[in-house]
Structure formats: structure tokens, C-alpha cells
Amino acid sequence: MTWYRRTTVTVLATLTVLTSGGCSRGIAGTPVAAPGAALLATTCRDYSGMSPTARREVIAAIAEGGNKLVATNPDLWVGVAAALCTFAAPGAPVKDVVTGGIR
């Protein structure tokens, strides 16, 4: 075997070991809203496990993102989003569910 082939095999074996490990257990706890633009990427799965305060932050981010209807009464939309997320796919972004872009 040439040094090039040995190096290639070693690199591929290392990458295979590093990428196939994955997580062996879930992380316990309640999901919390991430700051900034990440709030707009919150999924229904995450949203349903959040505290009311964290849910309010997600809805406030959607309102700040330009949704005037949500901006008029964010407290109302906290409950509406929770209700809509029971019908939407768990991976659907809350922003899409609230604005009518359900996937």
C-alpha cells in the first residue's frame, strides 16, 4: 500500500467512526427558546415543550419578523400557536403554522 492510499483509508475510517457515533441518550429537561433569529426556526415539537414565557418569546419574534396580525395581540397567539401545533407536523416551524404556511 502506498502512503497516499494508507492516509486515505485512515481518514475515511476516522470520519466513519466520528460520524456514526451519534447520541446514545436524550437530554432531559424542558426546551427553551433560543435567542435571536433562531426563535423563528422553532418547531412545533420544541414549542409544545416550552414554558409559557418561552412560547411568548417565540411569538414575539414572529411579530417582530413583520407579521402585523400577530403583533396586534401576541398573548392570544401563544395559545393559537399551541392549538395549531397539535394538528401540524412536529417538525413544522411555528412561524409557518401561525402564518398559514403549514407543511
Task: Outline the secondary-structure elements.
Blueprint lengths: L2 H18 L23 H5 L3 H13 L3 H5 L1 H12 L8 H6 L4
Helix pairs in contact: 3-5
What are the key terms here?
103 residues; mainly alpha; 0% strand
Short précis:
With 103 residues, the protein is an all-alpha fold.
What does the model show?
The structure is a single chain. This protein has a domain at 36-99. 57% of the residues lie in helices and 0% in strands. It contains 6 helices and no strands. α3 packs across α5. The radius of gyration is 20 Å and the shape is elongated.
Structural category: mainly alpha
Compute the number of strand runs.
0
Name the average pLDDT.
80
Number of helices: 6
Main sheet makeup: none
Q: Whole-Å distance between the termini?
A: 51 Å
The shape, in one word, is: elongated
- Name the poorly predicted regions: none
Helix share of residues?
55-70%
Q: State the order of secondary-structure elements, H for helix, E for strand.
A: HHHHHH
What is the radius of gyration computed over CA atoms, rounded to a whole number of angstroms?
Answer: 20 Å
What fraction of the residues are assigned to beta strands by DSSP? under 5%
